[in-house]
Structures are given as C-alpha cells and as structure tokens.
Amino acid sequence: MEADLKKLEFEGIRRLLEKLCATPYGADAARNLAPAPSVAAARQLQQAIGAARLGLESGEGPVLPELPDIRAALRQAATPGAALSGAALRNLHRVLRVGKELRPFVERRPLLLPAGAARLDGAAELIGRIDAQLLPNGAVREDASPELRALHGELKTAREGVQRDLASHLRSDGAKAHWAGQRLCLHLPDGFREEIRGVRRGAGPGGHGFLVEPMELVAGNNRLEKLAGSVEQHNQALLRALTDEVRGHLEALQQLVDSLTWLDLAVAGAQLSIHLQAQPAELVDDPILVLEGARHPQLILAHAEGHGPEPRPLNVRIDAECPILVVTGPNTGGKSVSLKTVGLLTVMAHCGLHLPVSGRAVVGNFQRVFVDMGDPQSVAFALSTFSGHVEVLKRLLEAADDHTLILLDELGTGTDPEEGAALAMAVLDHLARRGVRGMVTTHLTPIKAFAEAHAGLQNASMRFDHQRLEPTYELQIGVAGQSLGLLVAEKRGLPSDLVAQARTYLEQLHSGGA
Questions:
Q1: How many Cβ atoms are within 10 Å of 416's Cβ, its own excluded?
Q2: Which residues touch 119 (CB under 8 Å, ≥6 apart)?
Q3: CATH hierarchy code of domain 279-483
Q4: What is the maximal distance between C-alpha atoms in the chain?
Q5: How far lies 364's CA from each of 37, 305, 318, 319, 361, in Å?
Q6: CATH architecture of 146-241
Q7: Measured between alpha carbons, how far is 153 from 132 in angstroms, rounded to an integer?
Q8: Which of 160, 178, 406, 416 counts the most CB atoms within 10 A of its CB?
Q9: pLDDT class for 390, splitting at 50, 70, 90?
Q10: What positions does the domain DNA mismatch repair proteins mutS family occupy (predicted)?
C-alpha cells in the first residue's frame, strides 16, 4: 500500500498536514497518515475536521498551543521506582492544563472527539499536586514538605555562617568569594602573595587564578554539603512520589495524548480544507467514485503561491455502468494528472480528509488502491521498464476484486506495440470480469476499439482544442481520443519538414506500405 501511496505523491499531503499541526503528537500522526481501516473510521475524522472548520471559520477555535512531548516521560514513569525530573513533570503539567482547558469547547462540539471530552482531563488532579510541590521552572519548592522547609532553613543559616567566616579574607587585594558547589572558597589571582592557611581547590573560573578554601571554613562547608545532600535526597523522594502518582494515571494520560493527537490532526485537516476550499465526500460501501469539479491539491496550492496555471476541474464517474475508464489523448493533455488526481482524492477520502471539489464527491469503500505509474524499472534487480510493469500487474491480478480501484498509466507500453496491446486487452478483460473499478491511460489504438466493444470498459479522452492546437485538460466520457503525437511534436518545435516526412511514413504504415 505504501508503494501505491508514494506513486500518488501522498507524501506531499502528509507534509502539508504536518506543517499545520501545532503539537508533536499531531505532527507524528500526519507523517504516518494512511487510509482508515473502515468507512466508519474515515467518517469520524471527516466529521471532526468539519466541526473544527466550523469553529475556525466562526473564530471560536479550537486553537492548540505548542506543547512539549511527554510520551518519553510516560514510558519512563511506567517503571516502578522511577523519578521523573522536575522539568518533565512541569511539561506533563502543561499538557494536563491544555487538556482541561479544551474540554468545555469539545463538549459543545462532540463530533470533534468521538472518544468523548472526558478523556481530556481524566488525570486533571495531578495539576494541583504538581503545582503544590514544583515551581514553574521545575525546581522543588522549599516548602514542599515540613522536612524540606526545616532543611532549607538550616541550609540558609549555615550558608550565612560561612559567608561571615570568609568576610575577613575578602579584604585581601584581589580576593573574591566563589562557590565551588556547596563549598565557599576564595578566588585568588595568579601571583597572589599573601599566605592563607587552607586547601587548594583547583583553578578559578575560566582557568583564571586559583581557588583556596580557608581552614576556618572547612567545617562549615562540610555541614553545608551534608545539608545540601539531605535536601537533594528529599527532593528525589518527592519527585519519586510524584512519579508514582503519574504511574497511577498512565491510562488517563495516554488517553489525553491520544485525544490531543486526534484534535491536532482534525484542526490541521480543517485548515487544509479551508486552504483548498474543500468539502467532505459522501463515503459509501458500494464501489463507486463520483468527482465533480475535482482539482489536484498540490496544483491548487502551487497556483495560489504564483507557481503554475490554475488547475482545470475534472469530472469523473466510475460505477457499475462505467467500471473501468480507458483514457486516451495527447501526451500533454493531462491524462497522468487526471489519474493522479483521482487516486489522490480517493486516498484522501479514505483517510477522512476533505476533497477539493466544486460539486458532488462520492467515494466508495475501495479496500485496495493499486497504482502503476511512472517507470518501475530497477537496476538493483535487473528489471527493465516492461518487466517492472509486469511485476506490478502480477501483484494486481493476484489480489484485485470488486472493491479494488486500479490506476494504470500507459498500460501495454514498454514492449512491441501489438504484443503490448494484446496483453493490455487480456488484463482489462480479466479485471472487468472481476468487477474491478478503475482508470487506465493508453496510446495504443487497438485498446480503444477493444474498450468500445467491451461492456465492462468505457472510452474517455482528454479534450483537445484543434483551433488553438492545445489541450483543454478536460476529460470527456464516452469518446476515444487521438494521441496527436505529430501535432504535439510540431507545436513543441520539431522542424516542419521532419514532421511532414513523418506524416508520409504514417500514411504508408496505415496503407500497409514500407
């Protein structure tokens, strides 16, 4: 499936959504977006996107802020005895608050979150617990417990004591106070001449000068270190206790992350829907595809940014009466773009995204979308272009059924035209008898006649303006097209005498001459 999505350039849609997401959760979901497992699941996201779009267009939101990623912290908290850092717990606090703030909004718009707004604040009681024990920067509050309050009091008194003891030494020329961890020292310049009884503690800050701990400060500094160690032990015990509480709410916290992921993806989908002037498709179980006024999303956005012409709308209907469209026409007529548009919009609908159409959009429950587009040759596996196409057809024929959509570009090419046409006709007949739906492009004339006579196939073509000698990029159903290769070659600048000679050869070929 991923190979088919790649050929349709679905990665471009994923990237657009990822850029529109506000959180790391939604961005990950956008990067991994794939067709939903069922029509019902796709419809849920489709409806959530619709609800989010209504909120955005009315100015009510929802607007998700940038959020920290707490998933690694939740995995760590699952281990008994673990202690999350204060910063990790404050990140968790931030996410919890956003969930709590979003709940009233989601309760008024239940389609936004099918799982229910209650999943947004199932662990909200942790907000108060974290606030009571941690500062906004993640540091443990000095009054987080009676024991900590007492220890910090002792620490303050001890620190003031060593500072008083050091005061007499600061009168020395160039001497400064410097804390080396919990030990107060003198920072003395290089070449300092006075004699000070004490313990040398290495170089000064930046390698300038040196540190000396006066002997009369050693006992006080030892006490400071001991008190600081006790404070750190109490801090770790408190962080471990908070982490234990987090562990008891892991299920609710995971539900919160899942809910924020869904909401972020829905809001991003709503923004994309607005940018594309899109609308939800009607999702049905029958294998049918109706697109009225469909346009390729990437071409819409490129045109809006001043790159490329405005994309022409495409009208397509594939159903029981018209199961497989065989599209012909000139090389520059837009056959491949039409094929990609049909495939991409089908996949987008299966994901639950809105579609850029001006009229109806009905998308059936195609459980498989097979794509053969571009050059599948592989140097690594010594596959020619034709062999590569055969490998794709083999995979298709093994799995295709009446809920399969096929999109085959230039079927039958890469080998002798007669053999290619014969193989293409056999493949199309086989697929049509299975009830497969799809769209196929070709330049091979025998396939047009075959499609005209086959009940399961329908000719279609890209319209060409013979007056202006240029394609209109419009798909017309029921009419076989001409490749117009010589006309296109002349318009693209090949010498007119060469094209005239080619026309002579073409007449000879049609008449059976040499």
A1: 11
A2: 113, 252, 255, 256, 258, 259
A3: 3.40.50.300
A4: 116
A5: 13, 33, 10, 9, 10
A6: Orthogonal Bundle (1.10)
A7: 19
A8: 406
A9: confident
A10: 322-507
